[in-house]
Every structure is written in C-alpha cells, then in structure tokens.
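Hello again,

I reread your note about wanting to compare the complex against the isolated chains. To keep things tidy I'm splitting this into two emails, and this first one only covers the full assembly. Below are the input lines as submitted, including protein chains and any nucleic acid or small-molecule components. They are followed by the predicted structure of everything together. The single-chain runs will come separately.
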Amino acid sequence: MKRGFIFFILLFSLATSGHVFAQSDIESRIRALEDVLKKQAETIQAQQIMIDELKAEINKKTEVAAAPESKEKQTEVQTAPKAAGLFGGAAMSNPNISLVLNTYGYSSNLTTEEVRNRSIAGYTTRGIDRRNGFNLEAAEVALYAPVDSFFNLYATIPVTDDGAELEEAYFVTTCLPRGHQIKGGKFKSGFGRLNSQHSHVWDFVDAPLPYRAFIGDEGFSEKGIQYTYLLPLPFYAIVGVEALQGDNDLLFGSDAASGIHAYTAFVKASLDIGDNSTILFGPSVLTGKTKTDTVAADSDFSGDTTLYGLEFTYKWQPSKDRGFKIQSEYLLRTQSGDLTDTGSGLVQSLERSQDGLYFQGIFKQANWEFGARYDILSLFKDDYTLAGEKQDWGRRPWRASGMINYNFSEFSLLRLQYNHDESDVTGKPNDELFLQFIFAIGAHPAHKF
Amino acid sequence: MKKLLISFLLVLVLTTPAAAKINIVATLPWIGSIANDLGKDKVKIKVLVKPSQDPHQIEAKPGMILAARNADLLMYNGLDLEIGFLPILIESSRNNRIQPGKSGNLDCSQFINAIEKLEAVDRSMGDVHPLGNPHYHLSARNMMLVARGMTQALAGTDPENASFYRANLASLEGRMQKKQSQWSKIPLRGRKYIAYHKFFEYPARDYGFQIVDYVEEKPGIPPSARHISKLIASAKRSGASGILTTAYHGKKEVHALAQKTGLRSIIVPHDVGSAAGINDWFALMDAVLKSLE
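Full-complex prediction:
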C-alpha cells in the first residue's frame, strides 16, 4: 500500500512537472521544431539540386564513357577549379596564338618601278613598297599569355617576303597600384591613333600621307619603356611617357646617338555622349636625335626632330549592325640640323617645319563598311629652309581614297579601295586600286576601341 | 613645368576619395541585378553592356576601362561570352585587384555546371563556345549557385558586412525557391520550339521543353537561304509551338520564317532591361516564361 502510494506520488509529480514544463515552453519548442524542419527542407532542396546536377554530370559522363580517359577526366573535373573563360581555357603550356593573313592585289596606272621610286618631294625620299599584281603585306603571328600574376607578355611576328621580323615583343604589368602601368620591350608607340594599332585593323589598306611623310608606312615600333597612368577622374584620361631607343629611319635613325635618343609623351581623353556615342582625343609629342638619309636624295641629315600630333575619333554605334566613325589626326614635324651631300661632302643647314592631316569617315551597315578619306600635306605649315634659303616644293601634296569592305565574319574581310594620289607634285598622279583580304585564325582578337 | 605636372598628379592621387561602398563592375545586366539583390545599399554597381548590345560584339570603350579601373569586384558571365572585350579591358584597367586569379575577378560561370561543352572545335563551326553554352542566366537553378558564389566574393571583399550579404542571400534564395515552384507549374513540359540562337538550352533543361531546330545553321552565323527553305519545309512537321529569338538575334529572319510557316514568332526578353518593366532578374524570368506559354 505504502509502495503503491509512493509510486502514485512519483507518477503524479512526474506527470504534473511534465505538464507544467510543457505548458510554459510548448510554443518555443514547436517553433524550434519548425525551424529544424525548415532547415531540413532547405537542406533537402539544396541536396536535390546537387543530386540533379550530379545526375546530369553522370549522364554526360556515361555518354562519353566509351572514351578510355573518361575516369581520369571525371576526377579532373571534380578536383581542378574550372577554367575561367577569360583566356579561352587554353592549356597552361600554350600561349594564345593567332595568325593574321593580310594580302592584296594591286593595280596602278604607274609601273611598279615608278611606284617604288615615288617619293614626296621635300618630305621623304622613301618610295612605296608595292608591286602591280599580288602582294603579301604579312602573315602575322601573334602570341600572348600572362607570364605570372605580375606581367602579361605579347609578341607579334609578321612574316613577309623578306622573312620574319620581330615587330613587337613586350611585357605589360598587371600588378602595379591602381591606375599605373609599365610596358617594356619592343612595342608600337602610344603616339597618335593609327600608330598604336596594327595595320590589319586599320580602316584602309595603307597609311595616310602624313604617316608616310613623317613616320613611315607601318607606324613606328621601338625598343624602350612606356609608363602610363589612368587618371582618377570622372572621365577617361590617360597620360603616358616613353623613352625609346630611336630606330625609326624617318624620325630618328639608330646611329643618331650612342644611347637612348627618342622620347614621347601623350594624353588621351574620352567622353561618352549618351549611350551610343564616344569621342577620344588628345595630343602627342615626340622628340629625338636624328641621323637619316631619307630627307633628300644622296644626302645625310643629322640634327633634331620634334613631331606633334593631335588625334580625334568619334564613334556612333546604335546597334551591332549600324555605326558611323570619324577619325582624324594632325601631325606637325619640325627638324633642324645639317644636310650633308654624300657625293661632294657639302654641308648645309636645314630647317624644316611641315604639317599634314588626314580625315576619314566610315559608315557601317550590317556586314558592309563604306569609307572615304582625304589626306593633305603642308596644310598650315610649309617651311623648308636650306642654307638660309626657303625652298618652294610647288603645290600641296594630297590624296583622296574610297573603300568598301565586306566582313564575312568577325575573322575574315574583303576590302576594295581606290586612291587618287597627287602626292608627287612634279610627277604623274597615281591612281591605285587595291583588293585586300584579311583572315584571322587562332585566339580571339581583342575589340579595342 | 615638370614640377607643375608632378604636383598636379599628386593632388589627383591624394584627393581621390576613399569609396565607402563596394564598387562592382558587372558586364551584363542580369549580373548587376543579382549583385544588387545581395549588396543592396552597401554596393555601387556599374553595368558595362547595355541590354540593347550584343556582348559578343562590343568594344572595350574608354569609359568601360575607367569603370574597371575603379572596381573592387569585377563580375562577368564567363565561358568566353565576353572574350572580345574583357581580356583587353582587364589589362587596360590598370587595376591589380581584378586581374585573373585575384579575388576581385569573379567569373560567375565557375559556380554552374555548363552544358554543351565541346571537345574539338574550330571556327568553321561558327561562333562556338568550347567551354560550354554561355547563356545560363535564364535558370533559377543556376542563379541560386551563382548567388551563393557572389555572396562569398562580396563577403571576402567586404568582411565587415559579410553577415549582411549572407542575410540577403538567404532571403534571395527564399524568393527564388518560391518563384521556382511557381515557374515549374507553367505547363511547358514537352513543348517544342524552334530557336534562332542556342540561347534557351538551360531553361529547356529546367522546365522540360525542347528546342527541335535552329534558324542559325551555325551559332553566330546568319542562316543561308537554303537553310531557311529547308526549315520552312521541316517546321510544319516539327510540331513546334513557336520560333524563339531575342531582340538582337535575327528578328528579321524569324519574322519572315514565322510568316512563311504560320508559326508564332516569339521575341523572348534576353536580359534585364531588354523590355519595359523588366527591372530585375525575377521580372526577366517571369517575362521569359510568360512569353513561352
């Protein structure tokens, strides 16, 4: 009886204590349970997603299971981080490689001999390296890859009829503090607009007259070092300076001085006007010591050269199928020094200050592009003073061009261009017709502005 | 003169304000939308590609380079979709934080399992993507994975606000799950469509519809007349409920084909902002699935 009573008491106290506990805490416990359930549901859902993904993966794997290396690949997929799409996922051992073939047919009213000897009197004795018939501008091999997490490396090797040439081979830093960058090796100078582009992305087959007269047909690529800074402004503005060896044989000449003898500085600024329009503009200047034989026939020039440039580009691109682009550059070159006749040894002082401008417009419609260009020399400045006497080279040299090109795809292009060239003021005009093909294979080309 | 220039530069460097918000540069509008849901008022987002532009085609414009210069985090689609402008943009940005391999460089595709990876490719196959189909954003399944990855990146860049980003992720995931169960009820399973471009493969996987044919013979290459006439013949037999395309993929060809076959042409909104009222990724998915109905 006593035992029964104690048992009863115990049972009662247990029951009541349980009851009291439950009453005071029941809501929070239910909530806790709900939370647990919710979390489980979430986990299950997440797991379901993962299961689905794995299923898909397995399905894919079984599809390719016939391949003997599939097992190896599976572990590779699971362990290795996925290749980021940025550099094409190419294997680490291979840099990104591309080849651009730039070739054209050429027809002129002049003979090949006349074309090759066609100089611009007062400006350059250099002729045009071109033949009636088939021409190979270059098959250009380009390589690039990150070196490590500090540098990217680029090389451009155009192979021409004369063999392979190292046009560019340079590093670019990717590790400097925000805004700063150094480029070094051999590279296209940042001076001007066309100069810093490869000729196969130009809108016309050939360089405009001011380039021919002052820089050369391909622009100038120099050994040296470049520093640029992208300014922390509300609009795009970049400043750059370069120290260059000075090999270009119109501007400098490799023997002009025993060391580094060419320097450039440039500013490029850009503004977006609305959603579809962008302008890019800025001045450039270069200065250096010069020793060259391209000033006058049978003469060597030795002295100083300064070239000023002003560039302007406007692009309107409302859609991928339509667009309009205006591009212009003004160049002014001043040179002073001595002109030595290689025959007689006669030395005369030479001061020349000459300018030039090109202006071009390109209209794009679907795969077609239509363009026109006008080049002129001696626009505002035409001083050529030899031994204190001003020389008169006759009327202004000029040239007008029209072109149509068709892009089969982003990687192939067919271009028809016509030039009427009045740059040889004493000789005949040169009416030229080009039919150009450009093809690119390999790594995807960069869409620069 | 030199001194003046140097002092000018110094002033510029020293007076640059320290950014309070995290600067995010997103290549595509949907990336900006998801990042905005996670970062809210703690981030400043700049989207580079406009909804009217094709990311395959655009150039690295100076204004985009400037934006990338100031970025703390660069978020991009990946799978080579931005191959034309992104490598040059990143290098020209002169911003060491967003270089490949750095924590500020976020390839969103790394979080998903890409479909249609190709083993051997060349460009005669058209504008192909060897790393997989890059149009993965019309899929809630993928977006949940991307949002998680983005949250990790945000928390890494801005550890002080990590719990804020994680809380936003939790509510975003909740919304996605809720919407996903609604979207799954839309009766698309078993439906057949013809598509202009390989743009709808992920939603087809998720919602069970089929793409039976493509207007493009090869990706990125406009179709030939011969291919079109072949399509006209086969379209009627295919049982397709419509021809799908986006605002920048061959609208003209699809309309012409629709007229000739009697099939419905459906312009599917391709990204956030591509049509009025599509202000975020949820609205985009709503509009995409509604257009397929």
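For quick reference: Chain B has a mean pLDDT of 90.

B.
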